[in-house]
Amino acid sequence: MQGRCLCGNIRYVLDTAPRMTFACHCRDCQRQTGSAFSYFTLMKREKFHLTGTPRSHSTIGESGRSVTRHFCGDCGSPVFSELEKAPGIVVIPVGTLEGDPGLVPSRHSWVRHKQAWLTLEGAAELYEEEMP
Ligand SMILES: [Zn+2]
Ligand SMILES: [Zn+2]
Question: What is the CATH number of domain 2-126?
Fold first, then answer.
């Protein structure tokens, strides 16, 4: 699998198919994406091969731990994030993958900030705050 930012200056290749996909409804994700929630899949850092040089921005999330978001400095697309709580893992926005990867979120975190118009159906696990 592979992916890229909107302008194509940042690209990545994954060695294996991702195994866990989740949505995050926290206020920082809403602000950073300009959307209702972010939609990520997880990959071990060593199976994620990046070309190009993203810019980075770190925040302390509502969980109290740091989140570093890496994004294209030319087009602004988020490309991957790193979480203090999950060292060695990269968090990849599903919308940057090529084609339709068919990844369905199995968990939703920070559901207490979910937009009121959004109805969550299906078998996903819902967490009012941070997911385990
Ligand atoms: Zn770009
Ligand atoms: Zn979030």
Answer: 3.90.1590.10
> What is the predicted pLDDT for the residue at 14?
97
Report CA(130)–ligand 2 centroid distance (Å): 9
> From ligand 1's centre to the CA of 7, what distance in Å?
4
pLDDT digits (tens, 9 = 90+) for 56-73: 999 998 889 999 999 999
Dihedral over Cα of 6, 65, 41, 38: its sign = negative
Per-domain boundaries in the chain: 2-126
- Give the number of whichever ligand sits closest to the CA of residue 31: 2
- 39 CA distance to ligand 2 middle (Å): 9
Question: Ligand 1 centroid vs 79 CA: distance in angstroms?
Answer: 9
Residue whose tokens read 């091969």:
49
Instruction: Report pLDDT digits (tens) over 13-53.
Output: 999 999 899 999 999 999 999 999 999 999 999 999 999 99
Distance CA 82, CA 90 (A): 5
